[in-house]
Design brief:
Strand content: under 5%
Helix content: over 70%
Order of helices and strands: HHHHHHH
Length: 116
């Protein structure tokens, strides 16, 4: 398996990934075997940090309710990675989970309705 798969995906991307690229990156990551994650821990963590920064900066604004399950499943996968590999992935869950987005969306809709 390509040693630099995550690096190669990210190398020509802007600092803040497009929302579609966030989804693609999560898909790539979840398909990697645990042995690859252990062997390429730095590359994995670097990519995870880029995903977190991108998502907390702008990505969450594009996340629709129908995509919440994708992020929640990714967070469950991060817990599995933590448990099986010992790689510290739990610190990324808060920023990538859909928890709190319902309240944000409700307030956003309320704000949009009061602007009319």
């Amino acid at each position: 398996m390509n040693e630099n798969i995550l690096y190669n995906f990210l190398k020509n991307k802007p600092t803040y990934l497009d929302y579609d690229d966030e989804l693609k990156l999560m898909d790539i990551m979840t398909k990697l075997p645990m042995s690859w994650l252990i062997k390429n821990k730095k590359e994995f963590i670097d990519a995870l940090e880029e995903l977190e920064i991108s998502h907390t900066e702008t990505g969450f604004l594009y996340q629709e309710e129908c995509d919440d399950i994708i992020f929640d499943n990714f967070c469950e996968w991060l817990k599995e990675v933590n448990n099986k590999t010992g790689i510290a992935t739990l610190i990324y869950i808060k920023d990538l989970s859909s928890e709190g987005l319902d309240e944000f969306r409700k307030n956003l809709r309320k704000d949009e309705n009061t602007d009319k």
